[in-house]
Amino acid sequence: MDTHRVIRSWRESADKDWEVAQSLFKLKHYAYSLFFCHLVVEKLLKALVVQKTGEQAPTIHDLIKLVKKTGLKPTQAQREQLEVITTFNIKARYDDVKQSFYKQATRDFAQEHMKITKEICTWLKGNLQ
Prior knowledge:
Elements: H1 3-26, H2 30-53, H3 63-70, H4 76-91, H5 95-104, H6 107-126
């Protein structure tokens, strides 16, 4: 496995997904925007897993489990934020919880979590070589 290529691929994919998240936000598709925020963070974490282990990242979506595999030590606030962002993967995807998430995902809620996602991504990218 060419780890540099894999890391670059994860990072480029995360950057594209961030553009999609921003576009969805502008279109007022807040729940889907938050789903893409989760994807961005997940992909950066997977790049960091590859960087640390030299192996393919696991096919999981739990951001807390992924951050543990990176060896990074998030602050308590970052850990809590990652726990919330992890829920966007499920809440935006499955019909039984989707409707309540749509109500929760207001413009203000989405805007705040897009800001948090950007901060998390800055931290993660700062750890990528």
